[in-house]
Amino acid sequence: MEDQPAYNRRSIRLPHFDYTQPGGYFVTICTQDRQPLFGDIQNGEMRLSLQGRAVASFMEEIPLRFPNVKIETSIVMPNHAHLLFIIQGIDSGKAHEQAPTLGQIIGFFKYQTTKQINQTTATPGQRIWQRGYYEHIIRDERDYIAIWEYIQNNPLTWVSGEENLNP
Predict the structure, then answer these.
(1) d(CA 93, CA 61)
(2) 118 or 97, which is more confident
(3) pLDDT value of position 1
């Protein structure tokens, strides 16, 4: 009998779904141990720390690295980041291009932000992000609007939000 891993991680991914296909995606990425590394909320507005500015900057880098990805809206919160983006189709005339997977996009983002933050703060090897991330496939316009509003209003609801570990 094969050895089984000490733990089983339950996948939240949809079975048989192609995460490279064009469509809308909502992603939430949390800091390691939900530490408030990226700033704080003051009067319903997010005030970014040095680390938070690095995260916001690399959100803008995603479409430069992956030209078929369009960031619709995003926000950096004290201990997490939200992204709502669209993976657009690849031009069929460019056979050498491949659509990135959702995992490749988030992996690039997490790697680059961790590298930048650790260089800037002289903390080599410090873990910035939790393993994994939350994802949601946008199903229709109503879903898109609800998520877009959620992201935009996240700083206003922070005091009562469950993500705020320091109410």
Answers:
(1) 25
(2) 118
(3) 45
Structure tokens at 29: 């990425």
Instruction: Say what the pTM is.
Output: 0.82
Query: How many C-beta neighbours within 10 Å does residue 63 have?
Result: 14
CATH code: domain of residue 143:
3.30.70.1290
Tell me the per-residue pLDDT of 130-149, one tens digit each, with 9 for 90 and over.
Answer: 999 999 999 999 999 999 99
Residue 8 is encoded by which pair of tokens?
A: 């089983």
State how beta strands 23-30 and 80-87 pair: antiparallel
| Total of domains in the chain | 1
Domain interval for residue 120: 23-156
Cβ neighbours of 159 (radius 10 Å): 10
Which among 122, 108, 135 is positioned nearest to 51, based on CA atoms? 122
